Amino acid sequence: MSYSALARKWRPKSFAELKGQDHVAKALMNALARNQLHHAYLFTGTRGIGKTTIARIFAKCLNCEQGVVATPCNACDTCRAIDSGRYLDLIEVDAASKTKVEDTRELLDNVQYAPAAGRYKVYLIDEVHMLSGHSFNALLKTLEEPPSHVKFILATTDPEKIPVTILSRCLNFQLRALSENEISQQLALILQQESKSYEAEALQLLACFAKGSMRDALSLLEQAVSYCQDENINLQDVEFMLGMQYRQYLIPLLQAVFEQNIENAVALVQKMMDIGADAESVLQAFLESLHELSMQSIFLKKESALHSNKYQNLTIPLPEVLQLLYQIGLNGKRDLLFAPNTRIGLEMTILRMIAFLPDERKLGTPVTRVSTQQHATTPMSKPVTKPSQDNRASSKSFSSAVPPPALSSPRVEAQQARQQVEAKEVSAPAKALTANQSWNDIIEGLPLTGLTRILVKNCTVSHWGERSIHLALDISQEACLNQSRQMQIQKALSDYLGKDIVLKISCAEHKGTVSTPLQQDQQKEEQAQTDAKALLLNDERVQTIMQTFDATIENVSYEKVVK
Ligand SMILES: [Zn+2]
To answer: What keywords sit in the KW lines (predicted)?
Structure first.
């Protein structure tokens, strides 16, 4: 099977078979059905999306022996002659090779003669923008007063270069580039008809590489069929054929970045470079994967064509983390030009992603508790220190935190938690806010890490029963929720409370008075920041310095001092 055979065999033979250009097909079919034909059409669009194919179908519709029809018979001599490219009244001209005015004159001299065999002479002038100024003038005269037996079809990839006088005498159609899905579906259809097996992801890659051009896609498919020696068309072979073997290391690289495993990440980049990958393509593919993962996390609960099982073993980070990585990758790609060499640029971009990836400590665990007011407004939280001690601690130094909490055994904590729970069950509705605050303390005692911890910190308690607990998850974190994380939380809560409980998590918007533990942490953080600044401003020594040097305090940052 040669390329020409495959391309010819699968070239659309009627408007109904045409892929992706429905708007053009519909307009032309309507015009043909009503016999309201314009004498000149201009088709604009990138290469390989069906301009010549449309011209041929149009010529068949006009000249089919069955009459002027919207759907040609494809059986008569005329239709067959046009399909095989040997019809006298379809004159195909490549303007790129005939730019001179003499060529155009010669062509147009013949316009006046009646068609040799059919009803209409159809002139297809491809890449019409390549004509010279004089050629356009010669063409314009014919377009102004065309003989009734002539139809012009002009095709171009660059309509900006065509004079307005020509444009205004044509019906203009913008052909669109085909989507990857349209192309891969068409390739799949062809392979099914040819009784060949394939991997869907291999076709997806071919479609991506064809960049919207069906002709390029068919040519690549042809190449793939012979490369795979008529066996199953699989992703690995197609990657190899396209020089994209490095893609096999892409998912491991994503994993290494997500896990902040620097050694693995660097080794994988090395491997990719060793097999001849270029840094920009790697970065490009990495960014595409981040986009796919973002889409997956949005459509997690919906069945979607975007779903791909190739990422099934990856733990998808939070949407904001994916955004951060994407932005770093995008900047890295832009800066490749300025890097000492592209390999260094790629390595530094990957390392930067790992360096800036928010780790569990920053995201998952609560921030320091400096503020004494916070404790005062939390009546049900475990009294860690006496207020007087707190005051002394904070007056001594703004940066010193509260003394370490008194040691208590897990059993005692569990008992306390149970007591709290019982207390809550009696007066749950009235003390919703308080219940949520001590919910924060319970979370502290759960041995959860990573995304599961973040997930639980984004929940408030909506029902606390003897054997069942209902949590309301902040709607923005919906994408993090899955069965396994819910089971982890249920087990941790059961262990903590010393009894089997059934956990239900539903999504809700958290507004107004009830804030999630994570929001509370952020509020505490802000409060601590404000308190720290106030303490600093009230310090006599600081005041002296400010007066002496006419200084101001711009930003206050503080750290928890662990004693
Ligand atoms: Zn026919």
So the answer is: ATP-binding, DNA replication, DNA-directed DNA polymerase, Metal-binding, Nucleotide-binding, Nucleotidyltransferase, Transferase, Zinc
Dist. CA 38 → ligand 1 center (Å): 21
Q: Looking at per-residue confidence, does 514 or 311 come out higher?
A: 311
Distance 47 CA to ligand 1 centre (A): 28
**What are the residues whose beta carbons fall under 8 Å from the beta carbon of 251, sequence distance 6 or more?**
289, 310, 311, 313, 314
Tens digit of each residue's pLDDT (9 = 90 or more) over 367-384: 333 333 333 333 333 333
Distance from the CA of 80 to the center of ligand 1, in angstroms?
7
SS3 per-residue string spanning 460-492: EEEEECCCEEEEEEEHHHHHHCCHHHHHHHHHH
Instruction: Determine the topology of domain 3-174 in CATH.
Output: Rossmann fold (3.40.50)
Q: How close is the Cα of 159 to the center of ligand 1, in Å?
A: 32
CA of 20 to the centre of ligand 1 (A): 24
Q: How far is the CA of 277 from the centre of ligand 1 (A)?
A: 51
Among candidate residues 174, 206, 164, the one with its CA nearest the CA of residue 187: 206
What is 245-358's CATH topology? Zinc Finger, Delta Prime; domain 3 (1.20.272)
Q: How far is the centre of ligand 1, averaged over its atoms, from the C-alpha of 78 (Å)?
A: 6
Cα 57 to averaged position of ligand 1 atoms, centre (Å): 10
Distance 112 CA to ligand 1 centre (A): 25
Of 536, 513, 529, the closest CA to residue 371 belongs to: 529
State the distance from the centre of ligand 1 to the C-alpha of 79, rounded, in angstroms.
Answer: 4
Residues 209 and 223: their CA atoms lie apart, in Å, by 13
Task: Give the pLDDT band (50/70/90) at residue 81.
Answer: very high
- Centre of ligand 1 from the C-alpha of residue 63, in Å: 7
pLDDT, tens digit, for every residue of 209-265?
888 888 889 989 988 988 888 688 988 889 888 888 888 899 999 999 998 999 999
Q: Is a pLDDT exceeding 90 seen at residue 526?
A: no
Task: Label residue 360 by pLDDT band (50, 70, 90).
Answer: low
Question: Separation of 69 CA from ligand 1 center, angstroms?
Answer: 9
- pLDDT category at 309 given cuts 50, 70, 90 is low
Distance of CA 113 to the CA centre of its chain: 56
Ligand 1 center from residue 43 Cα (angstroms): 24
Q: How far is the CA of 216 from the centre of ligand 1 (A)?
A: 29
pLDDT of residue 455: 83
CA of 401 to the centre of ligand 1 (A): 89
* d(CA 26, ligand 1 centre) in Å: 20
**Whether the complex's predicted ipTM surpasses the cut of 0.90:** yes
Classify residue 269 by burial, with Cβ atoms within 10 Å: 0-12, 13-18, 19+: buried
Residue 498 and residue 445 in contact, taking contact as beta carbons nearer than 8 Å: no
CA of 148 to the centre of ligand 1 (A): 21
User: What's 372-520's CATH class?
Assistant: alpha beta
How is residue 45 written in tokens?
A: 């669009």
Q: Where in the chain is the domain with CATH 3.30.300.150?
A: 372-520
